[in-house]
Design a protein that fits this description.
The complex is a heterodimer of chains A (79) and B (237).
Chain A: H1 2-9, H2 15-31, H3 35-39, H4 42-50, H5 52-60, H6 72-78
Helix pairs in contact in A: 1-2, 2-4
Chain B: E1 7-12, E2 15-20, H1 25-31, E3 55-58, E4 64-66, E5 77-79, H2 83-99, H3 114-121, E6 138-139, E7 145-148, H4 157-166, E8 171-174, E9 181-184, H5 200-204, E10 210-212, H6 226-236
The chains are: A mainly alpha (79), B alpha+beta (237).
């Protein structure tokens, strides 16, 4: 999950990564034995629910609307 | 007078089955020839519910329950093979494959591996997750067997068989989460440990993580079926 998020954040993520992230979150959430596992994916799932456009912006336009992410990796590809 | 057994009736995959109280869903399903995939469960050993592959859906409950540890209840309606479960099982298998270095083509258990067989059964064609490719050691210090951490899935069958059946308790789990590792004694070489060399752990290992040094190539079938028989004979004594 962390790898996928890092990839999205540095601008090298793809739409497949986003779908995989969602799948992974739901599996971890539903199949975990303990309460930690059942709730750990929640932050990712809620950001996906309420800030999906920001994820898309990162992936499609290689831009971080909040100005937080360092998109160097993506810019290197462009340059 | 005969002792009355508490009989529960339930529905598994639209099939009406009866069971004794205290039986697990997995036991009942297997008695009725309903297959539920498992990795950490092994007949004759205690269950830990760790692999999460035997998860089943219970009607009226949002939660998925591990069939190997969940006991039957009267009137339960169990589904063992819904689309949701299949999806989760595939993802879990993908996670297992991506976690360590499972390279079937060079593995001694190629063709006899429970992980590989399950992958095929569940229709796993590729791993979407990035492989972690961890650098893990191989312990070949034992005179008869080898432990290859690269192929270990941490099912803890070896830990349980050594402690419960052999009574030696050589194996244990070190570390947590992604850093977990099967260790012998207090993280000593297997060869220098108090191992009794019975080889039960090798037979119960679902993958090629524990294997016999005398076996070459992929000619390494395993025979964990001795356990229920052994338990039966011990109880009879």
């Amino acid at each position: 999950m962390h790898t996928l998020l890092t990839r999205i954040c540095n601008g090298t993520g793809t739409m497949d990564d986003l779908a995989l992230l969602e799948d992974l979150c739901s599996t971890v959430k539903e199949t975990s034995l303990c309460g930690l596992g059942q709730t750990a994916p929640n932050p990712v799932l809620s950001t996906l629910k309420y800030f999906r456009n920001e994820y898309l912006e990162h992936i499609v336009n290689k831009r971080c609307p909040a100005g937080v992410c360092n998109m160097e990796a993506a810019l290197e590809v462009v340059a | 007078m005969s002792v009355e057994t508490d009989v529960k009736t339930l529905v598994i995959d639209e099939q009406e089955v009866s069971a004794r109280a205290g039986q697990t869903i997995l036991e009942v399903a297997r008695e009725n020839e309903i297959n539920i995939p498992t990795l950490c469960h092994l007949d004759g050993l205690s269950d830990v519910g760790a692999c999460r592959l035997c998860l089943v859906e219970i009607k009226g409950s949002n939660k998925l329950l591990p069939a190997c540890v969940a006991t039957v209840q009267e009137g339960m309606e169990v589904s063992t093979n819904t689309e949701r479960l299949q999806k989760h099982r595939r993802t879990i298998l993908e996670l297992l494959f991506a976690e360590r270095n499972h390279i079937c083509s060079v593995c001694v258990s190629n063709g006899h591996c429970e992980l590989q067989t399950l992958g095929q059964e569940q229709g796993l064609t590729h791993i979407r997750l990035p492989y972690r490719n961890p650098e893990l050691s191989v312990d070949a210090s034992h005179e008869r067997f080898t432990l290859d951490h690269n192929r270990c899935i941490l099912c803890t069958r070896c830990v349980r068989v050594c402690s419960e059946i052999e009574g030696a308790h050589i194996w244990d789990v070190m570390g947590r989460g992604i850093n977990s590792l099967i260790i012998s004694d207090l993280h000593q070489d297997w060869g220098g440990s108090a191992c009794t060399r019975c080889g039960k752990c090798v037979q119960v290992c679902p993958t090629g993580a524990l294997f016999d040094k005398s076996k070459i190539g992929s000619d390494h079938p395993k025979y964990p079926d001795f356990l229920p028989y052994l338990n039966l004979m011990r109880e009879a004594q």
